[in-house]
Amino acid sequence: MGQLNAGIVPVTPFQQNCAILFDEEEKRGVVVDPGGDVDRILAALRNNGITAEAIWITHGHIDHAGGAMELKEALGVDIVGPHEADRFLLDNLETQAARYGMANVRNCVPDRFLAEGDTASFAGHAFEVLHCPGHAPGHVVFYNRAAKFAHVGDVLFHGSVGRTDLPGGDHAALMRSIKEKLLPLGDDIGFLCGHGPGGRFGEERRSNPFLV
After folding, report:
1. Which of 146, 85, 90 lies closest to 116, judged by CA?
2. Residue 20 φ/ψ region, left for φ over 0, alpha for ψ in the -120 to 50 degree band, beta for the rest
3. Is 80 exposed, middle or buried (CB count within 10 Å of its CB: 0-12, 13-18, 19+)?
4. DSSP secondary structure letters along 102-159
5. Could you give the CA distance from residue 108 to residue 129 in angstroms, rounded to a whole number?
6. How far apart are CA 101 and CA 104, in angstroms?
7. Whole-angstrom Cα distance, residue 137 to residue 30?
8. Among 77, 10, 95, 67, residue whose Cα is nearest residue 44
9. Torsion, Cα of 82, 87, 93, 94 (10° steps)
10. CA distances (Å), origin 174, targets 132, 137, 153, 178
11. Which DSSP letter does residue 183 get?
């Protein structure tokens, strides 16, 4: 087992960070939140010699899940996540796509929903699943304890937090998710998020205006 690594492919008009998490030695990994622009995601895998073993979804919004079914067909892999509470969002992706003028979007049917305490893994890298509602009711975070790394989707951003004015959003629940599940993991945890640059939990705890 080699070092855990990550690459970002910005996708959709929302400039969502589609992440490719992979093992540096074995070049096996997963695609997290393929919101669209599937050809670009496939090119990134091909150009870096990475074999994707699964698609992981943090939550059911279109910019995170809109390209999942197309990518699943191209790769022949399972879609894992999010929590079942986001099924209503995944069932309505095509309706969302019409509203935003996005093409090639299909409703997403995960092969496996995730719940608090589950584990998702590839190439020996195990990620604990944390159910972190607020931005979306079924939002999950993927946490790798060994690497002190978390993929937090749209729960937390560098200097901001996820919006809660979309269907199923709940600001109080979001703040609980951040303060009770993420920050206690430790100040030294590095994170990737769904939009913009990542950071470290400690820096957010000290300087994020929503948390101070």
Report:
1. 85
2. beta
3. buried
4. --S------SB---TT-EEEETTEEEEEEE--SSSTT-EEEEETTTTEEE-TTSEETT
5. 20
6. 10
7. 23
8. 10
9. 140
10. 7, 9, 12, 6
11. G
Can you count the helices (H) and strands (E) in the chain? 7, 13
Q: Would you state the structure tokens that stand for residue 194, as one six-digit string?
A: 């769904």
Residues facing residue 152 across a β-bridge: none
> Tokens representing 36?
């669209």
Q: The tokens of 37 are what?
A: 């622009």
Reading the block at residue 59, the tokens are 């939550």
Whole-model pTM over 0.85: yes
Tokens of residue 174, six digits: 């979001």
Structure tokens of 178?
């951040």
Residue 132 has which token pair? 């972190």
3-state secondary structure of 13: coil
Spell out the per-residue pLDDT of the chain, length 212, in tens.
Answer: 999 999 999 999 999 999 999 999 999 999 999 999 999 999 999 999 999 999 999 999 999 999 999 999 999 999 999 999 999 999 999 999 999 888 889 999 999 999 999 999 999 999 999 999 999 999 999 999 999 999 999 999 999 999 999 999 999 999 999 999 999 999 999 999 999 999 999 999 999 999 99
